[in-house]
Design goal:
Blueprint: H1 3-13, H2 18-37, E1 42-44, E2 48-55, E3 58-61, E4 68-71, E5 74-81, H3 83-91, H4 95-114
Antiparallel strand pairs: 1-2, 2-5, 3-4
């Protein structure tokens, strides 16, 4: 789902034109981005929790060459799924994911066969 799809779905739920819903969706996104940018934790009950995680600097390996490389400290966003969202995802069908996975697998098989 894209931001545009989200805006259309929001407009349908609120019985308004999609153009009228744009400021609401944009404001919601800005509040989330600003809050995370300031390091705040965002908890939306039954949906999930967004929080900033501090990752320490570390030594890693380049998987192709095996050479050690330094990876600097960084901040990243962690999302922990809420109970209601997790239940909905688990009970949802697998139609879309299965189609994409099957298509990807077929493409990979055919490209391997060509080599």
């Amino acid at each position: 789902m894209t931001r545009n799809d989200l805006t259309i779905r929001f407009a349908e739920q609120m019985n308004m034109e999609p153009e009228e819903a744009v400021p609401y969706v944009e404001t919601f996104m800005e509040v989330i981005l600003d809050s995370l940018g300031q390091g705040d934790r965002i908890e939306i009950r039954d949906f999930g929790v967004f929080q900033i995680m501090e990752r320490n600097a570390r030594e890693a390996r380049n998987p192709r060459t095996g050479v050690k490389v330094h990876v600097g400290a960084k901040r990243t966003v962690k999302f922990k799924t809420g109970k209601s969202l997790l239940e909905r995802v688990r009970t949802a069908g697998f139609r879309e994911a299965t189609k994409r996975k099957a298509t990807r697998t077929n493409k990979q098989s055919s490209s391997v066969a060509k080599k």
